[in-house]
Amino acid sequence: MDTGSTGERSSLPLHVVSPLIPSTSLSQLCGRQVLLKLDNAQPSGSFKIRGIGHFIRKNIEKGYDHVVTSSGGNAGMAAAYASRRLGVPATVVIPESTPHLMISRLKEEQADVIVHGHVWNDAHEKAQELAQKDKCCLVHPFDHPDIWEGHSTLVTEILEQSFEKPAAIVVSVGGGGLLCGILKGLHEHGVADIPVIAMETEGAHALSAALQAGKPVSIGDITSIAKTLGALSVTQGVFDLMPGIQVLSNVITDKQAVVACMKFADEHHMLVEPACGAALAAGYCGIVQEFISKDVICNDGPVVFVVCGGNIVTLDLLMTWKNQLCILTT
Question: Annotated pathway, please (predicted)?
Answer without folding.
Answer: Carbohydrate biosynthesis; gluconeogenesis
